[in-house]
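Memo to structure team: turn this sequence into structure tokens by end of day. - J.P.
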Amino acid sequence: MIERTNPMQSLHVINPNSSAIVTATIAAAGRAALPHLADSFVFATLVDGPDGIVTQEDADRVAPLVTDYVREHATSASGFVIACYSDPGLFAASEVTTAPVVGLCQAGLAAAMSFGTRIGVIAVSRAAIPRHMRYYGARGLRGLIAGERAIDLPVAQSGDERAALGRIIEVATALRDRDGADVIVLGCAGMSNLRPQVEAALGVPVIDPVTAAIGVAVLRLTELGHV
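Reply from structure team:
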């Protein structure tokens, strides 16, 4: 399923899970961050994916779906964002297109390093943390992670203010006070809409990797003359 606002859209933001709720959150974050480019975005939901990407099995299952989507749209899209933390399918997708492919974790951690030296990550579930740690290790970034803690909610509820905000603030506070984090990354795309409230409560920078990744992709497309 693809949510379209204009037939000339060229930056495809892919939600690899099947949750339309999460896609709507991603779309709202992207449009709010760059409203003048909102008509240039496609927000796609991979309906054959799981309802949330938590475990390594989930990520491995959707990686081919992400790659297939990028291959299918390689000639019509100017660029792609993989809107799932730990970037499932990033490397394979980058091999099937000459367009930029940007991952949330990739961009979110880069943004965090601009604001702090000890990164705390909020995971949606404790079951997701080993998957994230493998990714940090593979990218040589493990030493930058002060800690990662989970809110233990379903992915579809990760952006629900009533269900998730209090838990996110509690976990972020522990990352700051117990783990020594001086910058926080929201480790699930569904949390994007809660970033301002979390930052206001914490008093340290809080990074939404959705807007970070879209920003990186737009910058690259601007450099290439596609925006």
